[in-house]
């Protein structure tokens, strides 16, 4: 994770300093008990690190149960708004473009919209979210901001220190709500739009002939991603086992994908999701997903698609211990993972000893 992610760029820090002088917090006395008991307008801000939208599901569920008549608003990165609207708990999804510095016109437009909504409670669910998101949350001016303590940042009205003994991200979030008397489980499940899944499968997956479909995510997440040679080796093993590959990629991998398509032909189906909701409509039709620690990995887990996760960092924060749908391959460097390690997990997945994906 880049240092500027946590601490902000020079422009971010200058913008935050300018904002702190321009905006002042209310000095009116606060009846904290009354605010918590009678909240009618609540903001939920997921972490903008990988998987943040999916890890916020337990919080959305618990807050809806606790405040059935309140208005819940969910703040998400702009590309994820369509997918976020599939959740049944929030009333409103607010899009935030965090590509511009703190204090920029784009930043201020979102910040002023948030202020105008006059939130009673606001929950920041990331202990290490980006500096920009942390500042946006701070200057949303909710009556009672709630979240995790963070070194170098003005404390929230209610906050807890991240607990290293509870590593799984969703458990951390549920612990925060449990402190406020909201008890529930930390399960992360994403709703499936069956009609959209069928439509996307017919359009993209049914035209390539028989064979189990394995989704391979080329996106890099927060690290370096797989090397081209590793990608080719994995595709070789998928094809040898009679499978087909759904190659999920971004625009930056287009040249590599063109070369792969020339090499593998109709054994692979390249797909560049214009909207994450499109990827969410394809993964339920896949037998297995192979991915690093990316948003698509956490999407697949939330959709209960069997996953082979490739990690070069501590796993316990990102994957619930004992999740049988997730097979972990871990190394100190993602590019040190061998195709033999991946092939062993593919063999188990294809043999039917794991996974619930359909055979095509």
Tell me what the CATH architecture of the largest domain is. Answer: 3-Layer(aba) Sandwich
CATH topology of the largest domain: Rossmann fold
- How would you name the CATH homologous superfamily of the largest domain? Glycogen Phosphorylase B
What's the end-to-end separation, in Å? 39 Å
How many β strands by DSSP?
Answer: 12
| Rg (CA only) | 21 Å
User: What coarse outline follows from CA principal-axis ratios?
Assistant: elongated
Give a quick set of tags describing it.
360 residues, alpha/beta, Rossmann fold, 6-stranded parallel β-sheet, 38% helix, disordered C terminus
What does this structure look like?
The chain is an alpha/beta fold and 360 residues long. It has 2 domains: 3-178, Rossmann fold (3-Layer(aba) Sandwich); 194-350, Rossmann fold (3-Layer(aba) Sandwich). The chain is built from 15 helices and 12 strands. It has helices at 3-7, 10-22, 32-37, 52-55, 57-66, 81-84, 105-117, 131-138, 169-178, 194-204, 228-240, 254-264, 276-282, 295-302, 339-350; strands at 41-45, 71-77, 92-96, 121-124, 144-148, 158-160, 213-217, 244-248, 268-271, 288-291, 307-311, 326-330. The protein has a 6-stranded parallel beta sheet with strand order 3-2-1-4-5-6, sandwiched between helices. Strand 2 (71-77), helix 6 (81-84) and strand 3 (92-96) form a beta-alpha-beta unit. Helix 5 (57-66) packs parallel to helix 9 (169-178), helix 10 (194-204) crosses helix 13 and helix 11 packs parallel to helix 15 (339-350). The longest helix is centred in the first third of the chain and has 13 residues, at 10-22. The protein is elongated and about 70 Å long.
